[in-house]
Amino acid sequence: MMELIKLIDLKKIYSHKYNKTFALDGINLSIKQGELIAVMGPSGSGKSSLLHILGLMDSPSEGEFLLNGKSLQQIKKHKVHKTRNQMIGFVFQYFALLKDYSVIDNVTLPLMYRKSRHKERIAKAKLYLEKVGLKEHIYKKADELSGGQQQRVAIARALVGEPELILADEPTGNLDRRTGEEIIDILQQLNSEGKTIVIVTHDLEVARKCNRIIELIDGKIHTDQFTKSL
Amino acid sequence: MFRIKDALRALSIRWVISILLLVQFTYGLSTIAGTGNIFFNLHYLKINSVLDFDSTYLVVPGRITNGLQDERYTKEQVEEIYNKLKNHKDVISFGTYYADNIVLDTKTHPLDSRLIAEFTKTHVGFNDPFINTIVIDENYYRLLNLKLSSGHGFSAQDFRKNSTQEANILAGSYFKKYYKTGDLINDQYRIIGFLPDKYIVNNNTSNVYLKLDKAMILPMPEDRYNDYNLMLSRLHLTTILKLRPGANLEQLTQIIQFPGDDVKLSLRNLGEDIRHNIADNTYSEIPQMVLGLSFILFSVIGIVVTTMVSIMIRKREFGIKLALGESTLGIFSQITIENVIIGITGIGLSLVHFMWKYKRLLQFSREMNLASPLDLKMNGSILIIIFLVFMTIISISSFFVYLFLRRQELKSLIGGME
Amino acid sequence: MRRILNDIWISKKIFTMLFIGFLLTLLPILIALSTRNYYDEHFYYSINGHYKYYYSITLQNIKKTDFLTLQNIADSSFSSSSVITKDITIMEPEIGPIQVVGLLNNLWKPPLLQGTGIESDEANEIIAGKLISDHVGTMKIMGKEYHVKGIAGKDAGRDLINVFNFKMYVYLNEIPASVKRIFDKQDALELLVRSNQNPKNEMNRFISEVKQHDPEVNASTDNESPKYEAEKNSRQGVKEVLSYPYKLFLMALINCVNVSYLWIYVKRKEISLRKALGASNLALFVYIMSQLSICAGLAAIFTFFVQWLLTGLNLTIVNNTSYFVSLNLGHIIIGFLVTLSIAFLTSLVPLLHILKIEPARALKE
User: Fold this and answer.
1) For chain B, how many structural domains are there in total?
2) Domain ABC transporter: where (chain A) (predicted)?
3) Which residues in chain C have their CB less than 8 angstroms from residue B261's CB?
């Protein structure tokens, strides 16, 4: 399998006057295409910092980050947003939908920044909304939907740009167990279709459904085990 | 398009602050329109005189009386004064004029309705259209030195005709739209050339002048030139002298003064008068300038502050958009569009406010067409001034907004999503 | 108090913007106030004095009553009201138009630049404006020789002086014959009764005494105050001059509201925490209001200082800009009231925010 992400001795350091805090302290990690990874760890272990860096929302203080074999330093600063738009899809705990926008408007947003044509945007958004079972609700306002439905919209939005990597931050954290399971099923389904997915979660049940579990403690990888083969 | 839609949505959410900013823009830009007009006019006065500032002197009576006591003096005495002026070493040239109005004959010759409307000056209570005209003698024509091409200026013969004969005239550039050289106005005035877009003295005692673009210059008919009463009146009220530097003004004043005349004449330098007028009006514009500058300051503060709050309130929205691939520049342009919408609406409202507030003055200015600091108008130049001020406000405020936006860390905006 | 000052210091950037806003709110208001006073004073000088009551008495068919008698009746009838004729304009070839004002009693005289007032029992005495005569002495007006006893004027700027420039004050019985002829031609003499107490009784006494002297005289009265008030309020030039400081006031106030909006937004976590710790909305409003009031108060003191500094240049300023800068106790009191009002108005946006903030919500952000 092709290597999608490679982190070499990656550090994220926060300096406060005389103190230095290592949010990430020498992370070495390789993520291959098609993996479904759970990142676990207690609060302050560096999960969010890792997610921010993987999502190109923050840059490492030290170390190397290769995305599709290309070093992050090679990506020009003003082009980072384009790379994020094309390569990464996000699913968040609180769904991160724009509540004044309709479902379809929310889903088409990533394509809008890609300057896709209107027709193409709508067609793709409808396709992915159908995939997550929400074709009936496309013109509803986002906040008119239930929590589970909102998370499905978020997944459709993460998929519509056809990214190589989907980052999910506690995707079931704000949902009841049954709905949470449905969401994980969708993510599993996507993974089985070849999508690379990284899920940050506290929920062991969710982690068990992934084929690799990485545990972070104090900014370091404590354990990294494959539970299923790809 | 989606950015404009988003901007309108954002503005409607913070509608109270948007309205407050609009009020600021409306009053501010309307003041700028007023001040811009004054400074535009002062600049116009400074550079567009058809007469030279430094060498031109106007004969000005100490007071305007009910009538000149003509029976005390004779035509020969007036001619003697002119002769003395002619031979004086400090006098380069001199001339006289009088202002006249030529009523357009609309009955025998149908005229373009726009032309009629342009020259119908309703506020003077006269319903027929008329053209402001300056009638000049031969000396004054030479003094003016209009630099017109051959055949398009007056000849000596033009000053030998009498007032009932057909006369050659020079018309303002406005008439080019309706007439060409050789055309006749009122079957009496033949256009032989067009005047430069400058202004001319039409009253020695006033500090407003006649713009030539919609005016005409006529050669003085011989019968008027030689009429003693008119001659005396011109000497007192409408004589122009072109003098050498350092001219002996005291001596020249004595020459033009009739012995025993209780109306004291003096010589005033045109440049000094206009510069004084400009300085006076610049001083009186100080409050408006203070208001204009305060408006710019407040608008910048207002825009920066409301945008900062707006960014803080919309952290979540911007965070989501950035995560989905929007660039910081995209967010910045989104915010700038919101401010531009307020600004452009403000420009519109300020123009409406300005035109409503100065409706009568605008109409008066349009009809009189005088070069004066208060010649209010709403034309391309004023719109450019307003637009430049608007751009200044938007640029300065956008600069500060950009600095603020750049300081926001993407991950902290993402944090705002939760 | 120390804590409030400390809080202001912590948000010094925002309070600097607020200070500028308050300063530019108060200064134009004070300038507008003093300018309005100046032009009102100018207006009242133009109508020969400021009084609470203005009435006119029109006497018709007064051929049998000479002006000296009329003057004596007025003198005995009016103890608290000044009586003068309405301005009559005559044309003197050497000078131009002269506005003649006839005095009927000595309860008012115009302000003088030099010389003394005139007495009713002295013949041919007048007070003249600066452009009629620039010195005391004798001069001929409408063919009659007068002794100019005083030069009327108020040395407070170009415009005020202008009001008196062509005025001539003379006792009614010494009025030029040409003015007398105008009265005869009109067969009416219009008098103005001005007083700070209601002059109705004195007017009735005057009219009855005039009628007693000559029963054929017709007298009518009219209240002139509303006309003067309307005239005062319709001065377009003054309106235009005052519109600029009012606009500046409005813009600066909007600026203060905007900045306070930012301030409360930046402070929302702190407010939320205070609420969580048990602070009431009222306590928070007082906390906000006290900080804004201190800032506004400081701006007010600074404004008074600037105003006081500019007072020394008031004649130069009025001549060049049409605005008059002065400072008196009334201005200071109004200034402080305006300060409190703008501090309150500026606190309204934060107040609305405080009411909306939930104790735990902002802390979560």
Assistant:
1) 2
2) 5-230
3) none
CA distance C176 to C143: 8
Asked, for residue B26, whether it belongs to a domain, the answer is yes
Highest mean pLDDT among A24-38, A78-92, B50-64, C9-23: A24-38
Helix or strand run (H / E) with residue C193? strand C188-195
CATH class, range A34-61+84-226: alpha beta
Hey, of B65, B68, B301, B414, which one would you mutate to test binding to chain C, going by the most C CBs within 10 A of its CB? B301
Asked if B306 is an interface residue toward chain C (Cβ–Cβ < 8 A), one would say: yes
Angstrom distance (rounded) from CA B276 to CA B278: 5
- Say yes or no: B74 and B8 in one domain: no
Here the ipTM equals: 0.74
| Residue B16 pLDDT exceeds 90 | no
Q: Do A94 and B418 touch (CB under 8 A)?
A: yes
Assess if residue B57 is contained within a domain: no
Close Cβ partners of B113 (under 8 Å, ≥ 6 residues apart): none
pLDDT band at C157 (very low <50, low <70, confident <90, very high): low
Distance CA C312, CA C290 (A): 34
- Identify the domain containing residue B401 by its residue range: 2-48+280-414
Residue B268 lies in a domain: no
Q: Which of B121, B99, B61 is nearest to B200 (CA)?
A: B99
How many Cα atoms within 13 Å fall on the side-chain side of residue C85?
28
pLDDT at B165 over 60: yes
- pLDDT of A59-95, one tens digit each? 889 999 998 888 888 877 778 888 888 899 988 888 8
Residues in chain C with CB shorter than 8 Å from the CB of B397 are: none
| pLDDT score, position B417 | 41
- Give me the residue spans of the domains in chain A: 34-61+84-226
Q: Is the pLDDT of residue B72 over 80?
A: no
Choose one of B263, B291, B326: the last residue of a domain. B263
